[in-house]
Each structure stands twice: as structure tokens, then as C-alpha cells.
Amino acid sequence: MQKIKSPPKRLSELARRLDGEWSRLSLPRAGEVVIVAVSGGADSTALLLTLDELCRARRLDLNLLVAHLDHGLRKASKEDADWVTKLSHKLGLQAYVRRTDVGQKAKRKLENLEQAARSTRYEFFAELAASSGANLVLAAHTMDDQAETVLMRLLRGSGAEGLSGMEPIRPLTSDSEIRLVRPFLGWARRSDTDQYCRSRRIRSRVDEMNEDSRFLRVRVRKQLLPLMETFNNKAVETLCRTAALLRDDAAALSTYAGQLLQKASETEPISQNIALNTSILAHSHPAVRRRVLRQWIASRMGHLRRVEMVHLLAVEQLLEGNRGRAIELPNGVLVTRRRGRLYLSVKKVEKQSRNL
Amino acid sequence: MQKIKSPPKRLSELARRLDGEWSRLSLPRAGEVVIVAVSGGADSTALLLTLDELCRARRLDLNLLVAHLDHGLRKASKEDADWVTKLSHKLGLQAYVRRTDVGQKAKRKLENLEQAARSTRYEFFAELAASSGANLVLAAHTMDDQAETVLMRLLRGSGAEGLSGMEPIRPLTSDSEIRLVRPFLGWARRSDTDQYCRSRRIRSRVDEMNEDSRFLRVRVRKQLLPLMETFNNKAVETLCRTAALLRDDAAALSTYAGQLLQKASETEPISQNIALNTSILAHSHPAVRRRVLRQWIASRMGHLRRVEMVHLLAVEQLLEGNRGRAIELPNGVLVTRRRGRLYLSVKKVEKQSRNL
After folding, report:
1. Which residues pair with B275 in a beta bridge?
2. A118-122, A185-189, A239-243, B255-259: the lowest-pLDDT one
3. 3-class DSSP state for residue A98?
């Protein structure tokens, strides 16, 4: 590994902006163990080095741990892991590397590889956080990643929640107290991290999968976004602003739906399950009603896997009395309308067949 | 003009689906004067001919009037007007043609030409509706037009309202009782209208402006949508579904904002102007608060021209006390924070300078 140019005496532009975002996000400045997810690409390398700048300048006093998951998908992946380890040691930081075989784990079609890689990474981070006492995991996603995510969701079909893109701060997993933080997401461009790495004379690693046009994300990055930038050279910023607006919309609608869910909830005497009052639902806005139905199903099932808009629309038909008295949803869920109430039950057959 | 193939004895597929949509939209079936906007392109020609089918089959009993605005933008536009007139006469319908010079009217940059053309058309339709007693104006926009509109708004920067695209039914102008109806918008593709015209052996007119790549809409149609269809061959349908979901979201949020506006409104004793209670606003969801501010400004000014997200964010800063006590908005509007209230005033100077 080449010699890294030592940080400038004054903070770099990128480090100063990161410092500002740190305040805006009300993140802790001292006394914390913080995991930094570093793939070795320009974004995460720049994140690690700017955090190091802020620590050296005493703007932060954090115990940084570097985490690198070797997905085992490429020949060069071992070299990436070594590179990240060496970089960490040069900075006087500990690096934790885990090697897995994501391809084996996915063993399904290409698009699911991304999903499998993500869940494996998150498991690794969660375990590392638990053993090290970290409350924060930092990821280096930029505005460019956000714009790509928004476009992928748009292409696949999505409402406000999906088009909101990634959140700057969220729980690492749905019930986790560990927070996943993306301090570059709101303001940094990929060109900023590239330029930063060049200015520190560091050659970050290039992930060949980032060039593999079988991945939707790569085609969005290489084809769709560049075309959109010929229409509006601020396309990335514009998409990110739309995502932020829709995130606020989705949050407000979720609150209203939660209130309506409470109002419409009626507890069944024996099972203690929650039934919904149909006339309260029937008089509510479709946008809120569909979210009530989602929250209701999620609270009972623990998830919303495979539940799609078409299912919610079917339940709405049920509400209006246009479509019999029962609707079957995925995962063996049955929604029944009876005497002014909607009931949710889970078919036993399905449960058994899953155990086979 | 060539001979039109007479309608099939049984209703065409397109006419049958139009009939279904007519019911879904609860449109009147008899005793009404209805204006059909016909440019002479495949979409509006197909709309006129399928309406004619439904009238001949006694599914509808409406007095159809054909309206054609000759925008005076192209050499061939007079020929289009003649073509539409002849087609109408063949169907036994009256055609109303008006010639204007939209180019003269716009005399600004290219993009505004579309805007000028639209407002001129709407004025023409409104006058014709008033003189003929029509309550409905039908326009032939398809799902393809909707998808293009959504993408144009996305490229320019937009929230849920903009990304909702066009509405299937709306007032012709903001305070009009005449309804603009787009009965193709929810389900018909441009390929459907093309195919229909071919099946009736009618060569609809081609608008050269539809080929002029200086227009954003044309580039979206010719470049962006085809690329998106290589990612998802149902891209048009997917975009239309997203638009419909966001339209529901925007409608719900607008209702909540209206309720909050009422709750936060405090009438000033002398002027009878409405001030807003800042602590009620401060505790509301940003997504709803921004819509309250928009509704408040619109109710006072009669419009929201030039008011953008950046202005609403500035007023939010004012609410939080982070940015002095006054914010200047476009159109000479001043928002002031004073003793727990937001006041809106219109600068006299601006009014005078406008009169010069």
C-alpha cells in the first residue's frame, strides 16, 4: 500500500462538512465505540479518513472500529480485505474482517445477491456492535447512491415510502437499538469522495461488481442517471430533494394511520386479537386506510413480506362489500368481514406446510 | 380525407373499455352537451370515434361538440383544422375551430410555449362550454402522457403533488364548475389508440412538434421512457400506479393541512386577516406544516406563483426562531413572527411597481 498523504494541518473541506452534518444529526462526539463500515471503495475510504481527521483535530473523541465484510464473490475480495486492514492499522485502528460466501447464501437470481449481501453485512455489524459495545454503525452512502436507490424503486414500482430512499439514521435492524447512520447521504457526492481520496494520494479499491451491468443498480448508474443529467444537470440533487419530501410525507401519513388504527381497533374477547371497525375505515382517506391495513397486518404477522398494493386494494374492496366476505393474503393470512368488523386469521395449513 | 371504415357491428375493444371507465368515473350518460377536444392526433381521434360508437350503440346519448384549437405554430396546422372539421361532419357532429397565434402569446422561451398553448386551449374550451351549456370537456390523454408528465416533474424537482401527474377529473380552471375529464388516462396506451385508428382505416394527423426534441416532453418520450422500458417493460404502467398512489397521499395530507390551518388560524381584530399560531404549527409534522403554509399563502394571495420549497423552508426556520423575525417571499409577501403568531402582509411598494 502506498504512503497516505498526511492530513492537512487545517481540516479538509470534506471533514469540515462532515463535522457540520455530525451536529445536524445530533450524533455523539465523545466516549462512544463507533463501527465504520469500510469496503475499500472511495466513499467508505473517504469516510474513514475524514473521521480520522476529526479525531486528530479533537473535534471527535470516538473509538473507531473498522468493519469489512469479504463477500467472497470475487477473486480480488481477499486483497480488498487486506487493503482495508492495512489502512486501518496505519491509522492506528482495529479492523474486523469476516469472510463469507454470499453467492452460496443467495443461490437465487442475481438481484437477490444484493439483498443477501446486505443482510449478511448487517448481521456482521450487529454482532460486532454487540461484542464491542458500539451503538453506531456508519455507512458511507452518498447522494449518488440515494438517487440510484430512488430510481430503482421508481422502476420497480413504489409509493412514497419506497421513493423516500435511504434514511440518514435508522435502526440497524427493525428491532435494534443500534443505529445505522449515513453521514454522507444528505450532502456528499461521489465526486467529492473521489476527489478527497486523490487529494490524500490514496488509490481506493474498485469493486468489479460496480461495473457489472447485470445489476440493475449498475445500469441505473451508468445509463439512466447520465441520461437524466442531460435533461437536468442537478438530477441527483433533485432526486434526493424529492426523496426527502416524500420521506416527510410518509412519516406524517404513518402517524395519522397509527392514530386511526387505534381508533378502529376492537379487541376480540377470547383471542385478544385486534379486529378493525369497518365503518371507521370506510370513512377514512384511502392513503391512510391502506397504511392502517399495513400496520394492522404487520403488528400481527411481525412483517409485511409479500404483501403488496394489490392485496391492500383487495381488502379495500372487501370493506366496500364488493367482493364477498373474505380475502386471502400471502403467508396464509385470511382477512374476513363479519358484522361490521375485519378479522385477521392465519391459516393453520400454511403454518404446517412451512414446517415440512 | 379517406373513407372511414364504418364501426364494427359489435363495439370495439377500445369503446367497450371506455364504456367501463365511463361508469367507474360516474359520468353522465344522457342529456348533456359534451365538448371533445380533438387535435387530430391518434389519441383524440380514437376518443372521438369511440364516443361516436357508444352513441350509435345507444350506450351514450350525448350531444358531442368537437373543439379544435389551431395554435398557429406550424404551417400544416390549418390542414389539421380542416381535417378535424371534415371528420366531425362525417360523424354528423359540429366542429368549433379557433385559430390563435400561441407563439406570439408566449414570446418567451420554448418551455413556456407548452404552457401558453395549454392556457389558450383552456380559455377556448371554457368559452365554448359557456356558450353551449356544456359541463364536460373530454381530453384524450393516455397512460403514456401520464408517465411522461410524471418524469418531467421528477426531472424538474417535485413533491407528491407534482408526481401525482394529471388527474382523471378536475375543474377546467381553478374556480370553474366545468369539469375536464380524461377518460383514457387510467388505462389506455398510445399503442391502443394507434391500433384503433388503423383498424378504422383512418390516418390521424401527426403533430411535428411531437418530434421536436427541443421540447422536454419529446425527449422524455423518445429517450428517457424507452431506456426505462429496457429496465422494466411495464415502466409506463408502473409510473402511472406510483402517480395514483401519490395522488391519494397528497389528497390526505391536504385534508389534514386544512384541518390544522383552521386550528392554527387566529383572526386579526381590525384587518380580519388570518394569523397563524406558531406553537400549534411547531408541533405539527413538517409535511403537514408546509402544506398549511401553502394553503395560508394561497388563501390570501389567490395563488402560489413563484412560491417554492425554499421559501416554505425559510418560514419554517422563522417558526423555530432561527432566522430573525421576518422572511420575504416572492410577489412582495412578507411573513413576520411576532408574539407567538405568524403574520402575512403584502408590501405596498411591490404593488405600486407592478402598476407602472
Report:
1. B266
2. A118-122
3. strand
A239 near B CB under 8 A: yes
Read off the amino acid at residue A30: A
Q: Evaluate whether A52 touches A5 at the Cβ level (below 8 Å).
A: no
Mean pLDDT on B163-179: 93
Q: Cβ separation of B249 and A160 shorter than 8 Å?
A: yes
| Pairing label, strands B136-138, B61-70 | unpaired
Rounded to a whole number of angstroms, the distance from the CA of A249 to the nearest CA of chain B is 5
User: Average pLDDT in the A208-233 region?
Assistant: 90
pTM: 0.91
pLDDT above 90 covers a percentage of chain A that reads 68
Dist. CA A97–CA A77, nearest whole Å: 11
Q: Is the pLDDT of residue B351 over 50?
A: no
Residue A157 and residue B220: Cβ atoms within 8 Å?
Answer: no
Task: Write out the three cell numbers for A6.
Answer: 498526511
Please check the confidence at residue B279 and state whether its pLDDT lies above 60. Answer: yes
CB contact under 8 A, B154 and A159: no
For the stretch B220-237, pLDDT in tens is: 999 999 999 999 999 999
User: Is pLDDT of A109 > 60?
Assistant: no
Q: Which residues pair with A68 in a beta bridge?
A: A97
- Beta-strand pair A179-181/B326-329: unpaired
Q: Of A111, A151, A154, which to mutate for an interface test with B (greatest number of B Cβ within 10 Å)?
A: A154
Q: Which three cell numbers stand for residue B158?
A: 417535485
> Does A228 sit within 8 Å of B224, measured CB to CB?
yes
If we measure between CA atoms, which residue out of A40, A13, A11 comes closest to residue A202?
A: A40
**pLDDT beyond 90 at B307:** no
Q: Is B292 left (phi over 0), alpha (psi -120 to 50) or beta?
A: alpha
* Number of residues that this document lists for chain B: 356
Q: Is A232 on the interface with B (CB under 8 A)?
A: yes
